[in-house]
Amino acid sequence: MSKPSLPQGTRDFGADTVRKRNYIFNTIKTVFELYGFEPLETPAMENLDTLMGKYGEEGDKLIFRILDSGNPFSKDFFVSLSEYLKYYSEISKRSLEANDSYDKKPLFEKPLWETNPEIIEAIAKDMQLPTGDRSKYLAKIKHDVSSKALKYDLTIPFARYVAMNHHQLTMPFKRYQIQPVWRADRPQKGRYREFYQCDADVVGSNSLLNEVELATIYATVFEKLGMDVEIKINSRKILAALAEVCGGSEKMVDITVAIDKLEKIGIEKVKEELVQRGLNTEQIAVIEKYLLINGSYDDKLQQIKLLLSESETGKLGIDEIETIVNSQLTAHHSPLTIDFTLARGLNYYTGIIFEVKAKNVQMGSIGGGGRYDDLTGLFGVPNIPGVGISFGVDRIYDVMEELKLFPADVRAGTKLLFFNLGGAESKKAFELMQQLRNKGISCELFHEQAKFDKQFKYAEKKQIPFIVIIGTKELESNSCNIKELESAVQETISFDALLSRFS
Amino acid sequence: MSKPSLPQGTRDFGADTVRKRNYIFNTIKTVFELYGFEPLETPAMENLDTLMGKYGEEGDKLIFRILDSGNPFSKDFFVSLSEYLKYYSEISKRSLEANDSYDKKPLFEKPLWETNPEIIEAIAKDMQLPTGDRSKYLAKIKHDVSSKALKYDLTIPFARYVAMNHHQLTMPFKRYQIQPVWRADRPQKGRYREFYQCDADVVGSNSLLNEVELATIYATVFEKLGMDVEIKINSRKILAALAEVCGGSEKMVDITVAIDKLEKIGIEKVKEELVQRGLNTEQIAVIEKYLLINGSYDDKLQQIKLLLSESETGKLGIDEIETIVNSQLTAHHSPLTIDFTLARGLNYYTGIIFEVKAKNVQMGSIGGGGRYDDLTGLFGVPNIPGVGISFGVDRIYDVMEELKLFPADVRAGTKLLFFNLGGAESKKAFELMQQLRNKGISCELFHEQAKFDKQFKYAEKKQIPFIVIIGTKELESNSCNIKELESAVQETISFDALLSRFS
After folding, report:
1. For position B260, what pLDDT does the model report?
2. Residue B374 — very low, low, confident or very high, per pLDDT cuts 50/70/90?
3. A390-399 pLDDT per residue, tens
4. Dist. CA A297–CA A284, nearest whole Å
5. Of B367, B337, B371, B369, which is closest to residue B351 (Cα–Cα)?
6. Could you tell me the CA-to-CA distances from A212 to A327, A330, B469 in Å, in that order?
7. Buried b vs exposed e over B358-385: b needs ≥16 C-beta within 10 Å?
8. Is residue A228 packed enough to be buried (19+ CB in 10 Å), middle (13-18) or exposed (0-12)?
9. What secondary structure does DSSP assign to B127-195, as a single string?
10. B257-275 residue pLDDT tens
11. Which of A11, A16, A41, A94 to mutate to probe the B interface, most B CBs <10 Å?
12. Distance CA B302, CA B294 (A)
């Protein structure tokens, strides 16, 4: 029998971790509810078609596919295998021809087509499929043995849900979702194959009120968690306007990619990259001005207005930022920052974008989001705009551990351990415990009559703060001996006093 | 673009359902915690080796396997395919020989071995594997393309966890676990491919105190949920003793299988089945006496003692039942019932077994469990006995829906909708909302300035109980108009009065 183990990149969560994680989840959930967001849960599995092609070529490869159940000896399955066989023989042939071995140790001395040309012919004929490239075969084989997959994020299943149910939903539809997702990424420190996402989205509304409320949700949650953070905002429209002013909108990707590296490589290297990407001196000068925008909210807004004065898109973007800045969010000590260098990669955002970073600790972003125009369009239901934010719960957990931010009472296990001193004593203990439990106090009776030392160790290891001893003497006088482990204070009190002390 | 859909046997849960389900989960969880059980979460994925062979041949087939990521063009994968090919040709050959077509439409006119004997030889040689039967090939193919699977229940992952961590765990280890599991069962009414299990187990203790507490947990949870239930108990030792008395322990399966059908087919048919299973008239007379045991706890215990007086195992089993009966559980109105016909299928239980049924409604068991001797032995760590119970959450949900047992306040969504009447009014509304939210009151501002009718409909559809209107007039007088939708009572109150009314 081999030693049991966990799949790579997955984790068991013991009591302490579950409780701390639930503390984070519950804090976020409570705030979501205060803003009128409602819970949604979607299954772990989605149809492969729902997920494929939604995360780019790299993302598609990281989707965990589920093997179809039932009889794999179906014709479809066999067709896939035939294709595979054909592909393999093709590879072997090319490999031998090129004298460049595809596999270090080929399975056959000679390629199949050479030893058995007829079988290949037979299979090819049966397949009735044109010759294709490797990735096409791969996709077909995978698809034929697998029509379901584990969800890769919460956004696409949410879009699928909205597309399926939009007639019944109350628009604007505000939902939150806290569930695990799976990615076949190479596991490394802080990156897991199964991890939780925690999203809130509003769809069916173009109102900036949503952005204001989502930013407020970020601020409120992190304040409740005791975390000092910076909530960066920018607008994709401002980035688009910058591109417009500097070489046309087709330069947007080049500019965004370079700007995205600012924090890592510094302004001089960014300028070098912009040169390599074909921007001229004049354009780079504008971008440098853009990157050097600084000061208070008002200072920044004044400078950006000047720089992008000629772009209509720019005006729209600046309006978005101003609306959020003019909400209560910019009060003293507000965590909100305008950061025109924020780009949020090359995804589907079209308006305001968010990113949250923890202060006083080295850690990537712990939250992000933004506005998108048409997510459900992917599923045939166009014109439902939306905006959403996401919390990076694993990173938030790590930050809170590092800065010791979890409150002590998160660890709310058993409060009292009753020692087991035999039948009659235990019966009394059980009776008292039921009364305490009715008042919401967690307690346990040690499972067997054992030496004090053993019972004491159990309390210690489980970090139970109080032990209660009821022996023959105590039973007669309707009293018990109670000891607080931390202070080592010990006293004899009546059963009634015990019951009234805890509530 | 095809219409989006859900995989067979899976479900989306909207807000109302999530809240009701959480009400059940939280009730159970709170009670588990009161008894000193601690939370555990294990990943959705387990190594295939951890799960295979643990649920019987039928169970193995229902495990959802996950396709390995990375390059499937590995040698291992190809070997599986070769095997498959060989197997297929073997089938075709036999099928043609027997003139009994395995597949309605064979892929090849002639079997492979006939058209291309060499290729089969080459593959067979490469495989270096003896000829095997279908299920072996199937297992090998599946295994080579899949080394992970979705968990099938919570018990085996728990055993795996205990086996991996037993040195660090405080024994007896009391854990609860509320997580989804997956089964490739044919979906039907009330049976899903993804569903939650909700388990509590104690391992590392032989004490019957655990059984007493688990029975109490059942009683407490269902009382809190307002469900009228029957908690049936029996002991596997009593069933073993009955077999001992009637034809020897090798008859236990026959007797148990027949008894298990009592409720469905009645005593006469059970007796017929016992005859068919080779029991003689005398033995069947004893079994009939056993099945007819009736009356109060004491009556039942007296009768069973008489019937099994010659069996040592029987005495042990009766002791177990008596201990539980003599605990506080048998108070007036106790849901506990001794049911000697309870068998709990053919699983790993060795002592007390439990089953819970809802009264006043047609529904299978809504909970079950029992004592097992050596679960972690499967993973190389023997001698850790345990006992556990499980709640059937989907069925509990259905019963509560049918009997309308969910409390009205489960639906705790947005409490107040502020109408949107423009910039200045909304700013005031937002300010008031922040104060209400700080007090834990969920509220929303309609996302855009729209006709009253539209805003009103939103409140209605989302079942928001109060609407608040702040127009120019109200803004000037620091007051608002508040309307309760159900009563249609409307009044104008000051902002301060609004804030103090809700808390």
Report:
1. 85
2. confident
3. 999 999 999 9
4. 24
5. B371
6. 7, 11, 21
7. beeeebebbbbbbbbeebbebbebeebb
8. middle
9. HT-----HHHHHHHHHHHH-SEEE-S-SHHHHHHHHHHHTTTSPSSEEEEEEEEEE--PPPBTTB-SEE
10. 899 888 889 999 999 999 9
11. A41
12. 10
Q: Quote the CA–CA distance of A444 and A427 in Å, as a whole number.
A: 13
**Exposed e or buried b for every residue in A403-436, given b needs 16+ CB within 10 A?**
eeebeeeeeebbbbbbbbbeeebbbbbbebbeeb
Residue range A419-426: mean pLDDT, rounded: 92
The pair of structure tokens assigned to B22 is 């959480």
Q: Give the list of residues 6+ apart from residue B271 with CB closer than 8 angstroms, or none.
A: B284, B287, B288
Shortest CB distance from B108 goes to which of A1, A122, A378? A122
Q: B145 with A142: CB under 8 angstroms?
A: no
Q: What is the mean pLDDT of chain B?
A: 86
- For residues A321 and A297, give the distance between their C-alpha atoms in angstroms, rounded to a whole number: 10
- Rounded to a whole number of angstroms, the distance from the CA of B437 to the nearest CA of chain A is 6
B contact test, residue of A209, A220, A466 with most B CBs within 10 A? A209
CA distance A96 to chain B (A): 17
A434 contacts B103? CB cut-off 8 A:
no
Residues of B in contact with A419 (CB under 8 A): none
Count the Cβ atoms, other than its own, within 10 Å of residue B30.
Answer: 15
Question: Whole-model pTM?
Answer: 0.87
Rounded to a whole number, what is the distance in Å from the CA of A140 to chain B's nearest CA? 12
CA–CA dist A101, A119 (Å, integer): 23
- Residue count (chain B): 503
- With cut-offs at 50, 70 and 90, classify the pLDDT of residue B224: very high
